[in-house]
Amino acid sequence: MSDVDTGTRLPRVLRLGVARTGYEVRTFFRERDAVVFIFAYPIIMLAIFATVFGQDGATVGPEPGIPFAQYFLPGMLATGIMLSSFQHLAISIAVERDDGGLKRLRGTPLPSSAFFLGKTGEVLVTSLVQTALLLAAAALLFGVPMPTTGTAWATFAWVFVLGTAAGTLCGVAFSSVPRSGKSASAVVTPIVLVLQFISGVFFVFNDLPTWMQQVASVFPLKWMAQGMRSVFLPPSAEAWEVSGSWQHGATAAVLLVWAVAALVVGVRTFRWRRRDDG
């Protein structure tokens, strides 16, 4: 390949990836049921838990405690990232494969790298919008205080980026597991729900059974939620963690390992055609 080809190939792929991102985002917002579920679910769950458990000024932890809305916000942020990345891609790609969309796309001049850049761009856009909506609702409706330091927002940024990357790559890799597009939701959704229950999203993680904590520690959602807690909870809450610390290093390591492992698995197993299509 000539130097000219080498120098022009990457910008071309990036341009196509940006264009594909625009297409994927427009397609996503046309699916009203997916939009409502992915954007509204974390806000609705935060409202339910804050209202039910936060009656009469009840709080979490030792006195004076933390308001329930503030404590559950980090878990809902982590859940939102998981819905926008892992769950959405694992289901939507399986559906696209089942209806022949991926096979037809494979026959076009569009590079596969541009297709995956488009999916990644879509997840980034939807995750940012969803996160902004959830933070606005938490601050305006429930009075949850937002971080005031650059360090806290920097932590939020890297947890968000690594969590989104891990969720996106896992979603692409897992999209080959469902046997059909119709079964994708039935396969993916229960996994997401179970992970929410054992990862400290709906309950105080330290109150869960030890075996459940150990199982949850294998998966990214627990670490995303813990990383977000380090941003939105006061420093004193660090002592409530099982390890007695926020474990930022472990959080980054686990999310990176899942991202790399999912990338390797996805490269080896991703299918453009249905199982019965050769």
UniProtKB/TrEMBL annotation:
It is found in: Cell membrane; Membrane. GO terms for biological process: response to antibiotic. The chain crosses the membrane at residues 34-53, 73-95, 123-144, 156-174, 186-205, 250-270. Its main location: membrane. GO terms for cellular component: ATP-binding cassette (ABC) transporter complex. The lineage of its organism: Bacteria, Bacillati, Actinomycetota, Actinomycetes, Micrococcales. It is a multi-pass membrane protein. Residues 33-273 form the ABC transmembrane type-2 domain. The keyword Transmembrane applies. This is Transport permease protein. Belongs to the ABC-2 integral membrane protein family. It comes from Cellulomonas terrae. It holds the Pfam family ABC2_membrane. PROSITE patterns: ABC_TM2 (PS51012). InterPro entries: ABC2_TM, ABC2_TM_bact-type, ABC_2_transport, Nod_factor_ABC_transporter. One of its GO terms (molecular function) is ABC-type transporter activity. Keywords: Antibiotic resistance, Cell membrane, Membrane, Transmembrane, Transmembrane helix, Transport.
